[in-house]
Every structure is written in C-alpha cells, then in structure tokens.
Design a protein that fits this description.
Elements lengths: L11 H11 L21 E3 L2 E3 L3 E3 L15 H12 L4 E2 L4 E3 L18 H19 L8 E7 L16 E2 L4 H4 L7 E2 L2 H20 L4 E4 L6 H6 L12 H4 L1 H13 L4 E9 L4 E3 L5 E3 L2 H5 L3 H4 L29 H6 L11 H4 L1 H12 L4 E6 L6 H4 L16 H18 L4 E4 L9 H10 L5 E4 L1 H5 L3 H7 L14 H7 L11 H4 L2 H26 L8 H8 L4 H6 L14
Parallel strand pairs: 3-4, 3-15, 4-6, 5-6, 6-9, 7-8, 9-10, 10-13, 13-14, 14-15
Antiparallel strand pairs: 1-2, 11-12
Helix pairs in contact: 2-3, 5-8
Length: 571
C-alpha cells in the first residue's frame, strides 16, 4: 500500500486536497497565529496548578536505565531535552515500574527506596535545563509528574527477548503469541500490587514530583484489567469490577500520600489484534476460531465478513483493502472500548465515559487519551509511515489514525468539559503538526497537545512553534521507527536517523544492517507469493503490494513478526 509522505504535501491546498480525497476528517488552521496570540501559548489554571502553555511531553520508555532501575547518562540526556523543549506539562516523563516483575525491559526505570534519589535527580536536571534555556524563574509554571506502571502480560524484566507475562485476564488471540503459558495474576496478587503502586506514589512525592500517572493504556496491566470481561472474581466481569484495580490505587494514594495529584493516561479505544499479511501489511486477526472455545459460556464465535476494518471508508482510498472485521462477539467478550469501524467510535466510548465519570468522582481532573497498543495494533496507537523491525506496513493512511485519536479526545472533552484532556498521536503530522494543534486547542477539542517521538528527534519543536520560528525540517520526526527497532534488538531507544548523537553510535550501524536484511527477506517473500498467484489476482492489489516495497521508507523500514511489537518513545 502506498500513501503520500507528509513532506510531499507542501501547501495547505495540497494537504487539504489529500484529506478530502481520502475521506479523512482532520481540521487544521492554514495560518499560525502570532506567538503572543497563539492558542498554544495560553496558560491554563486548574485549582492550584498553573501550566504555562499547551504543549505536553508524553511519557516514554527509553530502554537505557541500569539493571537496578536507575537512570543512565542517556536517560539524563533525554530528560534535559524535555527541559529545553519549551513544553510546560511533563506527563510522567518516563514509564517507571513499581516493582521488578512489572518491568517491560531489563533497563526500564524502577522506583524503589534504593533508586529514589537517582530518579529524583532526573526532575532536577529537567528543571535546570529549562531554567538555563528560558530563564531563572521559568519553572514556576511547569507541572512535572511520573508515570507508574506494571507491564503485565508484556513484562520482560530479566531479558529483552524472554517474555515473563503476568496477565490480568486470558485473551485467546494474545495468549497464543507467547512461547509459554501466560500466568494470570490472582486477586490476592492484585491486592498486593495495589499496595506497591501506593508505595511508589509516596516515593514519587518524596522525589519532588507533583503528580503520578496511574497508567491504564497500551495493553499493560492497568489497561488489560479494564477489558477483563472473562475474568472471574472481584477484578473481572462487570465494569465495576474491572475498574476496581484503578479505583483502589487512587483511593490508596489519596489516603496515604496527601498533596500528590493523580492523573490517568488511558487507551480510550481499542481494536482486535492485528497481524502481518504475507505482503507485510497489517490485517485484523480472525477472532472466530479463537472465540469458539468461549461459545458455550458466552454464545460468541461468529465473525462478521464483508465489512471493512477500522479506518477504512465506504470507498477505500487507493491502496486500502476490504478485510474481515472483528465481530461484535469479540467486542462483547474482550477488551475496553473496542471499535470495529470508525462510524462506531462514539458508541464505543460508552465504557470509557463511565470510567471518566468514576475518575471525576474520585477527584481526578487530568486525563491523557491514547488508543490501542504498540504490541498488537501499533498503527492505531502510534500512526507511522514506516514500521519497526517487528511491526507491519500500515493498513490505512496514518493520517486516518491521527484523526481517529483526535476525534476520540474531542468526543470525550465534549462529554466532560470540566476535565483536562491531553491528546496523543500528533508526531506523524510533521510539518502540519502546529497547524492541526492550533486548530484543536482553538476549538476546545483538547486542552493540551502531547508529543512523544517528535521530541526524540526535535526536542525544541514546541519552543520554536511558540516563538514563531520556522521549523527545522531536517530535524522533524518522519516516523522511521528506529526508536523502536533499537529496543527490539536489545539496544537503547533514540532517534538514530536524525539525532547526530545517536546516528554516530555503533548501534545505528547495527540497526541499519538488520533493517536491510529484513527488507530483502520480505521482498523475496512477496516475490514468491506473487509468482504463485493466479492471473486474476495480479492486478491492482499486487501493484499495491509492489508499491509498498518501492519507496525510500519501505526498503529501509520493513520488518518481521508483529507479535512482539512493543512500547518505546511514542505518542
């Protein structure tokens, strides 16, 4: 499949024409407001908290801490870059595990009494770099927190290539992706884990952080429990039980860690897991066979056919295909906010709205909206033109994925005007990021624009936008996904193509070599498949498959199995 590169849409007219031709509803402002009048430059005050502008740095997982869970110099460099970004909201800065078995990789940060001082120093370096760049009092309107997490079924605490899953619930499609049985945490283990989150929150406050994020996104434990419909006991089944884990953590922090604010980043919508087709493009997994074992208990197991998967329009754009969608049975049996078609996005947010009502009742005011998971539907979670080593080619125009996340956030903001919303998935917009961001904030569709991958490549982008400085096009993230490919190889995460610091490291050569070999392997697979097709199938679809291998990004960014696709620097 082939989609135009963002860099090729050089004018507002060209950008709008592509959106209209593709049926992608994505608003943007043609002209950026002067710096002083920019909606992105306006402060916001919520209770005693004042945040100086509308840019937010999203939490990222760098794969570059020590085995003990402390930051390395690479981690510190990243946090100093957060400080010079100009953004005033630091949403967690880093995904930090609350205990060892919850680490997504052996080098993920972990907050304990032993590591607390080192993690506190990250905040200190961020503030110092912010002051150095913007003035001695510039940190007065910074709001800095820490994201607390347990990686659940995607935990790999001891070796990057050895899964050690501790799941919240059985999942027929995801469980079979693991080489060994997936262990389900018991109710008693979840009770103890609640205490670990509360203890970590106390340490975060002692480190000087103003808030903690109780992570509930991207397939990790907090997110999986929200969709644990098939789980027995007090943490599964009805929504009241599925929200119990989050509710008990928040109540525990309120009772034991006074003065610490609580925020939540949540995957507000999701889809059936995706897999890679023989031609490298992602497709939704067939849930019918997986659900047959549940049929006697749930009555599920029928797969809808002849309907279009999420993101596809009634008349697909060139290169898009019509594929079987996940059935309503899967939607009822597994997951949280499952969407089968973009027309159903609003109705799919029914349970997420119930969750937000609960959070608002618990005094949680700050919400960061994201969607999906980098492990089983990365094109939904982090739209990108070029997949990482273990991903798949996008089955839809990545701009459609951006628009979906922006719309979901806007719908929730409309339902909960008193909550503060941070949006995600903006990095893929590249040159058009400021234009879409301004439109979103100006129209009240969100309160903050969250950036992840972009600040790995171009940390000063928020500052340049706020100053009215032309963007440095050579620094803009093009979603090459090397910041994920590195961790998939057991390396650190960084922007290897565009950050000269990482581009000069030996790991950059290793990543390029692996990508080249992977691309050649995929090209041979596609050639073999093409040779075996009948003449009646050798038309448009095969041309689209060939086109997916003919561009500059495809030959340098194709990949292997999607089953291990994981979290990294992301939006």
């Amino acid at each position: 499949m082939s989609y135009p590169r963002i860099a090729s849409l050089k004018t507002a007219a060209a950008f709008r024409a592509h959106l209209e031709r593709s049926g992608i509803a994505l608003g943007f402002d043609e002209q950026l407001a002067p710096p002083a009048a920019s909606p992105l430059a306006q402060p916001i005050e919520i209770g005693s908290v004042r945040v100086g502008n509308r840019f937010c740095i999203l939490p990222m997982e760098g794969w570059d801490g020590t085995r003990e869970g402390e930051p390395s110099e690479l981690t510190r460099r990243r946090w100093r870059h957060f400080g010079i970004s100009g953004a005033k909201l630091m949403w967690g800065g880093e995904a930090v595990a609350v205990r060892h078995d919850g680490r997504a990789n052996p080098n993920q940060l972990m907050l304990t009494r032993k590591t607390g001082r080192a993690i506190a120093s990250l905040r200190g370096e961020l503030v110092a770099s912010h002051r150095e760049r913007f003035g001695s009092n510039a940190d007065a309107d910074l709001f800095i927190g820490l994201q607390l997490t347990h990686s659940g079924r995607f935990a790999r605490p001891d070796a990057y290539d050895r899964p050690a899953p501790l799941a919240g619930a059985a999942h027929p499609l995801l469980d079979r992706r693991f080489p060994t049985a997936v262990r389900i945490l018991t109710d008693e283990e979840l009770d103890r884990l609640v205490d670990d989150f509360v203890a970590a929150a106390g340490l975060a406050r002692d480190c000087g952080f103003q808030f903690v994020d109780v992570k509930a996104c991207h397939g990790y434990l907090g997110h999986e429990l929200l969709g644990a419909r098939s789980r027995d006991g007090k943490y599964g089944g009805p929504l009241e039980n599925r929200t119990r884990f989050m509710r008990r953590i928040i109540e525990g922090i309120r009772a034991n860690v006074p003065g610490l604010q609580i925020v939540v980043r949540v995957s507000a919508f999701d889809t059936v897991p995706y897999r890679k087709r023989p031609d490298g493009v992602g497709e939704p997994e067939d849930s019918g066979a997986a659900l047959k074992g549940c049929a006697t208990e749930t009555g599920f197991g029928i797969v809808e056919t002849a309907t279009r998967s999420i993101g596809e329009t009634a008349t697909p754009s060139i290169g898009e295909t019509t594929t079987p969608s996940v059935a309503q049975p899967f939607r009822a049996a597994f997951g949280f906010g499952i969407v089968t078609h973009d027309d159903q996005l609003d109705s799919s947010l029914e349970e997420p709205r119930a969750l937000l009502r609960m959070l608002e009742g618990l005094g949680v005011r700050w919400i960061c909206v994201t969607g999906g998971s980098p492990y089983y539907n990365p094109h939904v979670q982090r739209p990108a033109m070029f997949p990482p080593l273990d991903g798949y080619e996008p089955p839809e125009d990545p701009l459609r994925g951006v628009a979906r996340q922006i719309r979901a956030t806007a719908l929730l903001k409309q339902s909960f005007p008193n909550l503060v919303f941070v949006g995600s998935a903006y990095s893929y917009l590249q040159e058009w990021l400021p234009h879409v961001a301004q439109h979103v904030i100006r129209n009240g569709m969100a309160d903050f624009v969250g950036l992840g991958r972009m600040v790995l490549a171009y940390p000063e982008l928020p500052a340049d936008v706020l100053a009215g400085t032309p963007l440095r096009r050579a620094s803009i993230c093009r979603t090459f996904s090397d910041c994920t490919t590195g961790p998939r190889l057991g390396l650190m995460s960084g922007c290897f193509p565009l950050d000269k610091f990482y581009a000069g490291r030996p790991e950059a050569v290793q990543i390029r070599d692996v990508r080249t070999r992977s691309a050649k392997s995929l090209a041979l697979q596609v050639d073999d498949e093409s040779a075996g097709r009948s003449a009646s199938l050798s038309g448009e679809r095969e041309s689209a498959g060939s086109a997916s291998l003919s561009g500059e990004g495809s030959l340098s960014q194709t990949e292997g199995s999607a089953s291990l696709s994981g979290e990294r620097g992301r939006t």
